[in-house]
Specification:
alpha+beta; Gyrase A, domain 2; Alpha-Beta Plaits; 2 domains; 3 helices; 11 strands
């Protein structure tokens, strides 16, 4: 696990996460899916991230992916609707930046407006960070950012984040 701290910013690699992709018409499923673009919801120890009009990523502690898949497939069957449920846990690695200046560190490599008025808690977006495709996610906790990146790009992005945090220490 990589851990770095620079003043008001802490970087750590996340332990592996259960990640299950769900594609469905939200109106047909009796689940608390966030339906506003780029928002998230927490439910039963799981985070539900809106990725598109009919796509969500369910994130939970590692080891729950099989249970999540079964529950989602059962919900689709009960609703009598089409849908897709895919375990993508091995696809992405995660990092967490925390602290009042974490958004400033991310802004070094991201073109999104990361000010809390535009990208506050319970928000997510698919974007580029340091030229790597990521899911940027703000959980409900204040001053915390989570970054999900393709496993093959995780070493590169981890180094970039480490350098950005260290640079922030010397040039706030």
């Amino acid at each position: 696990m990589v851990e770095t701290a620079a003043g008001s910013v802490t970087l750590r690699a996340l332990e592996p996460l259960a990640q299950v992709d769900l594609r469905v018409n939200a109106g047909r499923l009796a689940l608390p899916l966030p339906t506003a673009a780029n928002t998230t919801a927490d439910h039963g120890g799981r985070s539900l991230l809106w990725l598109g009009p009919d796509e969500w990523l369910v994130v939970a502690p590692d080891g729950l992916q099989g249970q999540i898949e079964r529950e989602l497939r059962e919900a689709l069957a009960r609703a009598g609707t089409w849908g897709s449920v895919v375990d993508v846990s091995g696809q992405r690695a995660g990092f967490e930046l925390a602290g009042p200046l974490a958004g400033d560190v991310l802004a070094k490599g991201c073109s999104l407006d990361l000010h809390p008025r535009s990208f506050g808690p319970a928000r997510c977006a698919q974007t580029l960070l340091a030229r790597a495709s990521v899911i940027l996610w703000r959980p409900e906790a204040p001053a915390v950012w989570r970054i999900l990146v393709s496993s093959s790009f995780a070493p590169y992005l981890g180094e970039w984040l480490h350098d950005a945090v260290e640079e922030h220490r010397t040039h706030p």
